Amino acid sequence: MKGKILALFVVFLLIGCKTNPNRHNDLNYMQNIEQTATEASAKNSHSTIQVGDQLIILITAKDMDVVKPFNQNYSSSEMVQTNALAGGNTPNQGITTLSGPTYVVDTQGNIDFPILGKINTTDKSLVEFKDELRDKMTKYILNPTVSVRLSNFKITVLGEVNRQGDYTIANGQATIWNALGLAGDLTMYGKRNDVLVIRTENGVITHGKVNLQDANLINSPYYNLKQGDAIIVSSSNTRDLAAKQNPNTGIYLTAASIAITAVAVVVSLFKK
Known about the structure:
single chain, alpha+beta, wza like fold, 3 domains, 12 strands, 23% strand
């Protein structure tokens, strides 16, 4: 009798300690990266300017007095010394802006720029718009340098991550990895193969799901994020089962374990 009780107790412990052999793989990202092509990801890397975007635009040149009329939205107090914008070129070295009034894209996709008037941004990336603006500036300025930055690029991360919330991306570009990194990565309960991305472009809402474990993710249109994207990480079945489980289950199991041990001890004493 004693032997049977102890055997049952051991079986009980083994069942409780059983682990899923695939659990480790379930937590790994982009498991097939070696077999995945990346050509498509480059095509999706540039998002287009949207209605309501706030653009910080700065024009620089060797003679800064010449560009003043085009920088009417910037005061001297809003300009600081740095070589980040000009890329270290001597004529423009040390001029950029950290903050200041912005050009807001109106409902027609236009901004109202000094001297040049209305300029349309529809279906243009920041790089394309910057190149177009630089071409326009060459009619007035010799070798101008144009900087265009998006000041209100925000994304939202919700669900099974360690830090839910809204995040502002300083340089206006981010991948889904950047967003999840800001959110402190997924929790152990996050469903890595079923992450939802909700996107709004020009008033149209679309959505798609990505599998973080599949390296083909980098070729998805949702790999490179766009302004206003929302990432929602759903919970795994393990989390769902835990939520439905009686909160006293652990107490019951502990009590049962103690009871079985006590019975085994009593039986042992009576046999002596």
